[in-house]
Amino acid sequence: MEYIVLTKPQARKIIIHSAGLAWKAQFGTGIEAVYRLIDHLGFVQLDTNYVVERAHHHVMAARIPDYQTAWLAELCEDGRLYEYFTSDAGYLPMHDFRFSLPVKQAFKTQGKPVTKPEMNLMKQILDQVEREGPVMVGDFENDRLEASSGWWDWRPAKVALERLYLEGNLMISRTKAFQKVYDLPLNLVPPETDLTLPTDEEYAHFVILRTLGALGIASVKEMSWRARRVKGNLVKKELEKMAQIGKVKMVTVEGVKGQFYMLPNQEINIKISDEVFILSPFDILNVFRHRLKDFFNFDYQIECFVPAPKRLYGYFSLPILAGETFIARMDAKADRKQKVLIVHNIHFESIDLGQIIIEKFIQALKAFIQFNQCHNIVFKRSNNATYLEAISKSFLGA
């Protein structure tokens, strides 16, 4: 059993490099870079929030300078990626498809019991798809018996479609308007795809290796999160076995509590650039708040789920990373009619920023404006008038 001791700066660099943010275009450019990135991370979270461009596109654009939003759909149509709900909804490489089967099995066996009317409706819908082809929720009449009580109070047809999807009887593709289209796996999964159900041990190994590849270093907590839909999974047990025989290394990080792990071939002394990245709240780097606190001293929370009076920084605050340091968070909204990116608030962290970093932030902002199909930018407020003035000057007359 091998133990490694890392300094916190070493750990930060490993985490950033594993996330694909060590330098611009770490995975190259073009549509192949999209595939390489998702194949490396193993999973890119999808989100429907459209205040700025959706999270899955944002993740790509932050890392791939020439990214085009149509590329994700194209890779799905080519059978190289697919969409599914593992730990969360997201895009995954098709060659990992068999490892979604334990999750689908878990939804079938561990989910809420299906009533007879629900079972009948699911069978009717599945029969319809088999006979007539793909369907959307809008293809079904409003079959709600009572008035809706809120966002997640779905009508029966929607519930049936989602259950068929989660259990693996149907799969999802998307329209250009990002609406779900439900179809048979037969029509979306290439015939050469391995459909063998992995053993419990194989599934645990897969989760461990995929998580460590994407996070660089990770604790049992993060690895278990990825497998959380499969109750009674063997992640912790198999991790101990893998550590014993050297398939993973045990890691401690100076100044950070807890036991961590990394892959045996993980490079330790990594160099990263001082580029500035405007990141999505759902970026792989940001989804575990405790990691941001522990490794980056960055106390972050996405506040769209926080009641308005309790928000500290804004509805959809975007973390800003410069090199290995989070320098700010930016609450922004794309006004698509006026083609203006409205920055409601830029809150800078309590660190001194040199002119080079300010300039790189300006360049990142210009790219972000274009990515959101805007032409201009408006700044509302900031906690640092000096930095805001320096940034604003670059956009005068824009």
Count the strands? 13
Q: What is the overall number of helices?
A: 14
Shape: globular
The average pLDDT value, as a whole number, equals 94
What class would the helix/strand composition place it in?
A: alpha+beta
Quick description:
This protein is of the alpha+beta class. The chain has helices spanning 8-18, 31-41, 55-63, 70-77, 101-110, 116-132, 156-166, 185-188, 200-215, 220-226, 235-244, 289-296, 355-371, 385-393, and strands at residues 3-6, 44-45, 81-85, 89-93, 171-174, 180-183, 249-253, 256-262, 276-278, 317-322, 325-335, 340-348, 376-379.
Could you characterize the architecture of this molecule?
- There is one protein chain.
- This protein is an alpha+beta fold and 398 residues long.
- Among the domains are: 105-188, Orthogonal Bundle (Arc Repressor Mutant, subunit A); 301-393.
- The chain has helices at 8-18, 31-41, 55-63, 70-77, 101-110, 116-132, 156-166, 185-188, 200-215, 220-226, 235-244, 289-296, 355-371, 385-393, and strands at residues 3-6, 44-45, 81-85, 89-93, 171-174, 180-183, 249-253, 256-262, 276-278, 317-322, 325-335, 340-348, 376-379.
- Strand 5 and strand 6 (180-183) form a beta hairpin.
- The longest helix is centred in the first third of the chain and has 17 residues, at 116-132.
- The model is unreliable at 147-152 (pLDDT under 50).
Which labels suit this protein?
398 residues; alpha+beta; Arc Repressor Mutant, subunit A; five-stranded mixed sheet; three-stranded mixed sheet; 14 helices; 13 strands; globular
